[in-house]
User: What shape does this take?
Amino acid sequence: MRERVVEKLVLLIDDDNLPMKFYVKALEHEGFRVNHCFNPDSALDFAMEETSRIDAIILDIMLPPGQIYRSENTNDGLKTSVLLLKDLRHYCPDAAVVVLTNVSKPSTLNEFKGQNSVEVVQKISCPPFGLVEIVRKMLKMCDEES
Assistant: This one.
């Protein structure tokens, strides 16, 4: 039996509620605390309140711009998460990041390549407990770097 994670805080940002419920349940089952935000505004508000306490961020690429990015060119949502991740790094610079997406456009995915503690994962090939294992792996890597 695997060791349970003790109170690691995960910020999940995805505007699609139904499939995310399964990911949330899997993460919570394994001992993670999960805060699911549906837009960039609520995600940034949460990050400001929980500065430095967020251990992992799970981020969808396609997000509505919210109020904060409404004047930015988000390329119909494809750039929203790039802008959001940059801002989130101010509040939780050491958080592991899993970009969980259905987007396969190489130019969009390349926006995340080479970033520290970031892994891009396709939703279609990542069942809920698969995401748990990816988050565990990312957290372990971050702990080893500390």
